[in-house]
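U., I forgot to send this yesterday:
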Amino acid sequence: MSEQPQQPGPYGYGYPNQPPGPPPGYPQYGYPQYGSVPGAVPPGMYTGDPNAPYGYDPYGRPYSDKSKVVAGVLQFVLGGFGVGRFYIGNVGLGLAQLFTCGGFGIWALIDGIILLTGSNQTDSQGRVLRG
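Result:
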């Protein structure tokens, strides 16, 4: 009872009765590219999930359809009226900034900086703002 040794394929020894070469959909060498593996979606693209219209961030939190850059610029330019907060759906903070003229401009300036540089800002539905 002697067994024949397996013939090495391009990736070394494999399972018995497996054809040599990479699995279908993978390149000959290296890591799979987007589009070569079925179901792979580039980050930030629409996935068809209504709860995450722009996909998920690396921590698994869904991205919003709102942008933190647009919110920050609106807050800098029209912060006395709370427009940046109205844009992302924070109506309560927007009204507070509207009635206090953006905290005499100081609150609006600081809020614009926080909106532009923060990574945990969310919209009214709890989704993380896109960068």
